[in-house]
Specification:
Helix content: 25-40%
Enzyme class: transferase
Structural class: alpha/beta
Mean pLDDT: 95
Strand order of the largest sheet: 6-5-1-9-10-11-12-13-14
Family: Belongs to the carbohydrate kinase PfkB family.
Radius of gyration: 18 Å
GO molecular function, one term: kinase activity
Shape: globular
Domain Carbohydrate kinase PfkB: 28-335
Keywords: ATP-binding, Kinase, Magnesium, Nucleotide-binding, Purine salvage, Transferase
Low-confidence stretches: none
Number of helices: 13
Length: 341
């Protein structure tokens, strides 16, 4: 099987500015642990304050880009993955390009002349993380870039697509183009619920593309928010996963499979009106560095097996392996070679 360019991701490339902080810091900027939000004016001073901390780290991130890099790492086949998003023409943008090259991902960034590369504040308390994204250039992505022949060629070449829900706030028309291409060509299109605010405030664009999703990923909090927004009156993650998988589909070629992670609790997979649960690899608390990128890594691991047409059990196993590696390190980073059998 030819793996070159088999998996394409599209999203918001952000540079993570990650530091360990205290509760007081969270309260000062009015942020909650285990949440992901878009920055408001009140959050803007936070970036400099984090950047000046002794323990600060700058790590190339962005949810979709993290997943694609992890899939690439597990595949160990140069150029198996591609990624599209918008960065600025600046130091952070150069850093991002360098990082992607090392990761082996074929990136086609749209480089914005006047807007700085996006950043994401990662506040870590007791191993748990809170994310505050200042999209900047990432917010400037336009479907005109996607339609250029050299970029659309990546869409044509890929057989699997993954886009985090966060990109719905930036370029829903780009998502729609890829979703419709996937449906018309019997390819596999997948997205992530990504954050409670996406399910709440971007409901319309999320619902518009949901019929095209062959795989829907998310965590338990996002699933419960999705349920609440749609008036399902259930907090039961298994029931919610089934209901999402039964949402009408644009194309009948593939059934929809919903995959919901629950931190240390089992992964819930819903298909054909039934649920399977898979335990995760438990980690002693003292080995936990931070959960930043854990969900992204799970999806990356899952996709690395999916594109090889492995059974769902193997996809979940690889997802759990990748998440387990990432939470023992700072940010979404990994050792040089995977040790997944």
């Amino acid at each position: 099987m030819a793996y070159e360019g088999i998996l394409l991701g599209m999203g918001n490339p952000l540079l993570d500015i990650s530091a360990v902080v205290d509760e007081e810091f969270l309260n000062k900027y009015d942020v909650k642990l285990n949440n992901a939000i878009l920055a408001e004016d009140k959050h803007l001073p936070m970036y400099d304050e984090l950047a000046s901390k002794d323990n600060v780290e700058f790590i190339a991130g962005g949810a979709t880009q993290n997943s694609i890099k992890v899939a690439q790492w597990l595949l160990q086949i140069p150029g198996a993955t591609s990624y599209i998003g918008c960065i600025g023409k600046d130091k952070f943008g150069e850093e991002m390009k360098k990082n992607s090259k090392i990761a082996g991902v074929n990136v086609h960034y749209y480089e914005h002349e006047s807007t700085p590369t996006g950043t994401c504040a990662v506040c870590v308390v007791g191993g748990e993380r809170s994310l505050i994204a200042n999209l900047s250039a990432a917010n400037c992505y336009k479907s005109e870039h996607l339609k250029r022949p050299e970029n659309w060629a990546l869409v044509e070449k890929a057989k699997y697509y993954y886009i985090a829900g966060f990109f719905l706030t930036v370029s829903p028309d780009s998502i729609q183009l890829v979703a419709e291409h996937a449906a018309a060509n019997n390819k596999i299109f997948s997205m992530n619920l990504s954050a409670p605010f996406i399910c709440e405030f971007f409901r319309d664009v999320q619902e518009k593309v949901l019929p095209y999703m062959d795989y829907v990923y998310g965590n338990e909090t996002e699933a419960r928010t999705f349920s609440k927004v749609h008036g399902w009156e259930t907090d039961n993650v298994e029931e919610i996963a089934i209901k999402i998988s039964q949402w009408p589909k644009a194309s009948g070629t593939h059934k929809r499979i919903t995959v919901i992670t629950q931190g240390a609790d089992p992964v819930v997979v819903a298909e054909d009106g039934k649920v399977k649960k898979f335990p995760v690899i438990l980690l002693p608390k003292e080995k936990l560095v931070d959960t930043n990128g854990a969900g992204d890594a799970f999806v990356g691991g899952f996709l690395s097996q999916l594109v090889q047409e492995k059974p769902i059990e193997e996809c979940v196993r690889a997802g759990c392996y990748a998440a387990n590696v990432i939470i023992q390190r700072s940010g979404c980073t990994y050792p040089e070679k995977p040790d997944f059998k």
